[in-house]
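Now for one specimen:
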Amino acid sequence: MKKRLLALMLVLGMTFALAGCAGAEKEDTSGGETTDEAAEDGAKEAEGKPEQSVVKWNYGTSGNVLVTIANEKGYFKDEGISIEPVEANANADAMTLLATGKVDVVSNAGTSNPLAQIASGVDISVFGGHMIEGCMPVVALPDTEWKGIESFLGEKVAVNPSYFAFTGAVAELDGVDDPMTAVSWEVYSDYNDALAAVVRGDVKYALMGTGQNLSVQEMEKNGEIKIVSYQSEIMENYSCCRMVAQTKWINENPNTVKAVIRSLLRAQSYYEANKKEAVTLHAAAIDATEEYVGAYMLDDEHYFVSVDPLKNGVIRAWGILDSTGFLDENASNIKIEDHINTVLYEEALKEATELYGDEAPDFYKNMQTFFDENDK
């Protein structure tokens, strides 16, 4: 019964969040190439060419700012690929599209959803990332005391416990044996319903989505609620959204995967140096106002995007979800490390550094440092 209830919570949680390096030409010092030399050059060029020129991608209704920039600035085109957006109504639908091969890449379906799929036997893998921290505020009534995650103990909170940052943090508190019973986790299918529950006093705290930032900030200014914390303050680098694909697709299209990563690395470099323009570009891409997008994207303390796979964070999430009952019993037979591909990312980062490092040397140095700290 507990497993069925937890599975239902996870399904409800799913609705919440909703190329190739062409071979260098040989310098001709002899006046011409022999047949063997020409064949060798052709093989090198083919080796770096994307296996797939069009990548079918689901990035949800909120979009992916790195994809937006890579499209607008021609980074995908430079790598010999293009992106075909594939829409889905919810994160669960996106994962179904991925499992059935109707989409190649999903980047906005969180971390819990892909891990639940892996645990149930679907052979997909993490190969990169989107948001590492998604600027998700925790709100309460204005006079509510907040002392940290310990304020959740014994209270009703509108947080789906599939959000492992919270259950993981509660589990680490002294005296807590079971984070699932130490807090009354109230599950709402919509963030607006969770917010209304706070205003009515039905729950003491509620987690809001990235897209609720503008309305929440306005309500706080009006004295209706207050932001007491953010998910990223509960657990740093909690792994908001991973970039996933079928393991077979990754293995059969390594050059395409690396082309995607190199494009997104350039986009991330541009994003970090031009956030206000990124807001303008992304607002247009998702048909939203700049005020709406800027409410979360310009929050440098709580909004963090990165192409990095964040291997250690994914392993941590897997452990928490398993210990709190949100993964299939089959999870004990699965080594999650086998579903996190960091090899192609590491190769692509090296290649991008060689190709584009002069554009932003500090950025690529920082990305290497971040990889060394979070993926090894």
